[in-house]
Design brief:
Elements: H1 6-32, H2 39-45, H3 50-61, H4 65-83, H5 88-94, H6 100-111, H7 115-125, H8 131-137
Helix pairs in contact: 1-4, 2-3, 4-7
């Protein structure tokens, strides 16, 4: 007969193993964001089904693997657009997006302005700023993460 605590201990060990695998997936996205990545390929890399990976990743990190990948791509695109030496189309492909329409839509959702507008205004806004500061100041904020303004007394 098995020890009564074996079940919960095994479940805890499985959760830790899943978290380690999810960190590997997140690290791979961070490293290879410009490569053609999809949830199926990421899941194969850690021997999970795509559905299981998506559910576990969202539970652990608050967003799907695809959403996390697109956020990394948009962050990198913001840096490239601030430099000003590449067109929006060149930036789109440089960060691993294969559709200019999807890139522009996602960029606008996360940043609040289209990439062409951002490119035009951002280079001047961060002029003279060290790149590490510019990255923090311009980091995209998702709509659901944006701070809620406190009502002002009348």
């Amino acid at each position: 007969m098995c020890h009564p605590s074996w079940g919960p201990a095994r479940a805890a060990a499985q959760r830790l193993n899943d978290l380690a695998l999810l960190r590997r997936v997140r690290d791979r996205i961070d490293r290879e964001y410009a490569q053609p990545l999809n949830v199926e390929a990421l899941a194969r890399g850690v021997n999970m089904s795509a559905g299981h990976l998506s559910r576990r990743f969202k539970l652990a990190y608050g967003e799907s693997p695809y959403s996390y990948l697109m956020t990394r791509r948009i962050e990198r695109a913001m840096t490239l657009l601030r430099r000003g030496d590449l067109s929006v189309t060149e930036v789109c492909f440089a960060v691993g997006c294969s559709s200019l329409g999807t890139f522009s839509t996602r960029f606008t959702e996360l940043v609040g302005v289209p990439p062409s507008t951002y490119r035009h205004h951002a280079a001047r806004a961060t002029a003279g700023m060290p790149p590490c500061v510019a990255k923090q100041v311009t980091r995209p904020i998702r709509n659901q993460e944006a701070p809620v303004a406190e009502p002002q007394p009348a």
